[in-house]
From TrEMBL:
GO terms for cellular component: cytosolic small ribosomal subunit. It holds the Pfam family Ribosomal_S14. Keywords: Ribonucleoprotein, Ribosomal protein, Zinc. Its cofactor is Zn(2+). It comes from the Eukaryota. The keyword Protein transport does not apply. The keyword Glycoprotein does not apply. GO terms for biological process: cytoplasmic translation. The lineage of its organism: Eukaryota, Fungi, Dikarya, Basidiomycota, Agaricomycotina. This is Uncharacterized protein. It comes from Serendipita indica (strain DSM 11827) (Root endophyte fungus). Belongs to the universal ribosomal protein uS14 family. Transmembrane segments: none annotated. GO terms for molecular function: structural constituent of ribosome; zinc ion binding.
Length: 91
C-alpha cells in the first residue's frame, strides 16, 4: 500500500524581512486558499490601498510608517537606521 502524499506549498518571504515569517504574512498566505472558510473571511477584501496595505520594509510593522521619500519604514526602524541612510539630526 503506497504512503500518502502531501502537497507542500512554499510561500515567498516578504522583501527585506529579517524574521522568518511575520504572523500576519503567514496567515494571509494561508487565508488566500480557494475555499472560503471562517478564517479566510477576515482577509477577504483586497489590500491595495489604506493603512492595511502598507508595512515597514524591515520589520513588517504596520503602525507609525514614515512614507516620505518612499522610505516605508516604521518610526523605530527609522531611528535605528537614519544615520546609515544619510539623515542628520539638526537642532
Amino acid at each position: 500500500m503506497p504512503l500518502a502524499t502531501f502537497k507542500v506549498t512554499v510561500f515567498a518571504r516578504p522583501r527585506f524581512a529579517n524574521k522568518p515569517y511575520p504572523r500576519r504574512q503567514l496567515f494571509r498566505a494561508v487565508a488566500s486558499t480557494k475555499k472560503m472558510t471562517h478564517d479566510a473571511v477576515w482577509f477577504s477584501r483586497p489590500r491595495k490601498f489604506g493603512k492595511g496595505s502598507r508595512q515597514c520594509r524591515l520589520c513588517a510593522h504596520q503602525a507609525g510608517l514614515i512614507r516620505k521619500y518612499g522610505l516605508d519604514l516604521c518610526r523605530q526602524c527609522f531611528r535605528e537606521n537614519s544615520a546609515a541612510i544619510g539623515f542628520v539630526k539638526n537642532r
